[in-house]
Design goal:
CATH superfamily of the largest domain: Ribokinase
Helix content: 40-55%
CATH class of the largest domain: Alpha Beta
Strand content: 15-25%
CATH topology of the largest domain: UDP-N-acetylmuramoyl-L-alanine:D-glutamate ligase
Number of helices: 19
Structural class: alpha/beta
Length: 493
C-alpha cells in the first residue's frame, strides 16, 4: 500500500535534523503565526479576560513570544509570563522576544489575578523529557486549575513527544498546535488525553516529510486508499477469489473466541472461514453464522490461504502442537492472544516465527508484548513505539501493539500509529474481532503491512461508527464491531 497520502510522523531527533536543514527559514515566525490563528479561533465568543502566554526558557518559549506579538497586533489583551533571562534564550527565541518587546510587549514573572480567556502553554514543547519542577511546575498547576481553555504549542508540557509518556505535573490541553509533522507522543499512550484536539502546521516543509518513517492512520484517508484486493466491482468471481481463512484456537471453555473471530472475518470479506478447535469437544455448528465450518485444528489448516492462530487457544500441549502446525504452513499467519503467550514462553517457537518466509503478523496488548520482550508492562507503555519496533525486528513480523493509539511496526523500521477508535473497544472479545478482520484481509490477498494497517484502522473506525450511531462507547459489544465494519466497507464501495 502506497502510504504517501498518510500524515507523516517525526520523532524529536528527526525533527531537529529537518529543522537544521532549514535554519534561517523563519520557522519560528511561521509556527507562532499558525498557533496565533488557532488561538484566535479558540477565542471566538470569549467573554473577555486576557490571553496568558506561559513562555519557557527555550525555543518553545520563542514560539510563545511570536503568538503574543501576533495576538497583540490583533488587539487582544495578552499577558506573557516569563520567568527566565532573555539573554540566555536560544538565538531564534531571543530574536522573537526582542520582536515582541519592540512591538510594545512586556513580560511578567507570575500570572496576575485576572481570570484568563485562554492559556497558551509555551513552556517546553518537545524539549522536556522529565518532570517540570520549581516555578515551571507551579505554572503547570496554575494553568490546569484556571478552568480556561489551554492551547499547547507543539506538545503539552510534561508529555514526552517521542513516547506518549506523561511526566507529572503535566498540562492538560484543550488543543495542541504542533509544527512540521505529527509527534508519536501526541498519538499514543497518554498523548491523546493530554493534547486535546491536535492541528498540524507543516510550515511549508511538506517536501521534506516524504521520507518520514512514521505515518498516522485514520479511516477517511485510509478508506480512500482501499486496496484493489478488497474491491467488489468485478462480477466474474467466486468464494475462492476472496480466500480461505483458517482460525485456530478455542480451548475448552474458550470456544467462543475463534467463533467471534470467524464471524468478523466473514463480515469483512473472507470467502470461506474454517474454525479449527483445540478443544476435542466443540460446537458442531454456529447457528448464528452457519456458514462457518467448524472442526479440528489440523483439518482447518489444510489448503488455507491465511491463518489466524491464538483466539481462546490456551497454552496446553495440544495448543502448542496446533501452533507449530500453523507456523509450518507456508501462508500468511496472524498470531494473537495465547499464540503470543506460547511464543513468549518458548525460545524455539520464537526462532521458528522469526525464520518464517511467509508474512507473519502479531497483535499483542501491552502485557503480551512485555512477555515477548522479557520486560514489564510499564516499560512497554513508557515507549510504545520503541517496544513495537523491537518486537517487529525480533520476530521478523508486522506488529500491532494495541492500546490507545495502537502502534504498528514493520520490519525495516517503518511504523504507523492508528488514530481511529475510542473506549468502545475496551471490551472482551474486541481483540478476537480484530484478529478475524486481520485474517480476512490476509485471505483476500493483502500484503502483511497493508493487511495490518487496514484491519487495525477499520477496527477503530467501526467503534467510531457505533459511537456516531449512539451505540457506545458504553455497552457496545465486540460482536457489534463486525457489523459496523461491514457497513463501512460497503459504504466505501
Amino acid at each position: 500500500m502506497d502510504d504517501s497520502r498518510l500524515a507523516p510522523i517525526l520523532r524529536t531527533a528527526e525533527l531537529r535534523a529537518l529543522e537544521s536543514r532549514h535554519a534561517g527559514a523563519g520557522l519560528m515566525d511561521r509556527a507562532g503565526a499558525a498557533a496565533a490563528a488557532v488561538a484566535q479561533a479558540m477565542l471566538a465568543g470569549s467573554r473577555g479576560g486576557p490571553v496568558v502566554v506561559l513562555a519557557g526558557p527555550g525555543n518553545n518559549g520563542g514560539d510563545g513570544f511570536v503568538v503574543a506579538r501576533e495576538l497583540g497586533r490583533a488587539f487582544h489583551d495578552v499577558d506573557v509570563v516569563f520567568a527566565g533571562d532573555p539573554d540566555r534564550l536560544p538565538a531564534d527565541a531571543r530574536a522573537a522576544h526582542a520582536s515582541y518587546a519592540a512591538a510594545g510587549g512586556a513580560t511578567i514573572r507570575e500570572p496576575r489575578g485576572r481570570a484568563p480567556a485562554l492559556v497558551v502553554d509555551a513552556l517546553f514543547g518537545i524539549g522536556l523529557a522529565r518532570p517540570a519542577s520549581g516555578a515551571y511546575a507551579d505554572l503547570v498547576a496554575w494553568a490546569n486549575g484556571r478552568g480556561a481553555p489551554v492551547l499547547a504549542l507543539d506538545v503539552p508540557t510534561g508529555l514526552d513527544a517521542d513516547t506518549g509518556a506523561l511526566f507529572e505535573p503535566a498540562i492538560r490541553a484543550t488543543a495542541t498546535a504542533t509544527f512540521i509533522a505529527h509527534k508519536p507522543g501526541l498519538l499514543t499512550g497518554d498523548g491523546p488525553d493530554a493534547a486535546g484536539i491536535v492541528s498540524v502546521h507543516t510550515l511549508g516543509l511538506d517536501a521534506g516529510l516524504a521520507s518520514a518513517p512514521g505515518r498516522r492512520l485514520d479511516w477517511p484517508p485510509l478508506d480512500a486508499m482501499r486496496p484493489d484486493a478488497l474491491s467488489r466491482t468485478r462480477r466474474n468471481v467466486h468464494k475462492g477469489t476472496y480466500g480461505t481463512l483458517a482460525i485456530v484456537g478455542g480451548a475448552p471453555g474458550m470456544t467462543g473466541a475463534p467463533i467471534l473471530a470467524g464471524r468478523a472475518a466473514v463480515r469483512t470479506g473472507a470467502g470461506k472461514v474454517r474454525i479449527g478447535f483445540v478443544a476435542a469437544a466443540h460446537p458442531p455448528v454456529d447457528w448464528n453464522a452457519p456458514e462457518l465450518m467448524l472442526g479440528e485444528a489440523a483439518r482447518a489448516i489444510e489448503d488455507a490461504d491465511a491463518i489466524v492462530a491464538g483466539p481462546g487457544m490456551g497454552t496446553s500441549d495440544a495448543a502448542a502442537n496446533a501452533l507449530r502446525r500453523a507456523l509450518d504452513a507456508p501462508v500468511p499467519l496472524a498470531l494473537d492472544a495465547d499464540a503470543l503467550n506460547l511464543v513468549a514462553a518458548s525460545e524455539s517457537l520464537r526462532g521458528t516465527v522469526a525464520a518464517r518466509n511467509a508474512p507473519t503478523l502479531a497483535t499483542p496488548h501491552p502485557a503480551e508484548a512485555a512477555r515477548l520482550l522479557g520486560t514489564t508492562t510499564a516499560e512497554v507503555q513508557r515507549d510504545r513505539v520503541g517496544a513495537a519496533a523491537t518486537l517487529a525486528e525480533r520476530l521478523n513480523a508486522h506488529v500491532v501493539l494495541k492500546g490507545a493509539g495502537s502502534v504498528l511496526a514493520h520490519p525495516g523500521g517503518r511504523y504507523d500509529i492508528n488514530a481511529s477508535g475510542n473506549p468502545a473497544l475496551a471490551t472482551a472479545g474486541s481483540g478476537d474481532v480484530l484478529a478475524g478482520m486481520l485474517g480476512a484481509m490476509l485471505a483476500q490477498g493483502l500484503d502483511g503491512a497493508s493487511a495490518l494497517r487496514y484491519a487495525v484502522c477499520l477496527h477503530g473506525a467501526a467503534a467510531d461508527r457505533l459511537v456516531a450511531r449512539g451505540v457506545g462507547p458504553i455497552g457496545a459489544g465486540a460482536s457489534e464491531l463486525a457489523d459496523a465494519a461491514r457497513e463501512l466497507l460497503n459504504r466505501a464501495g
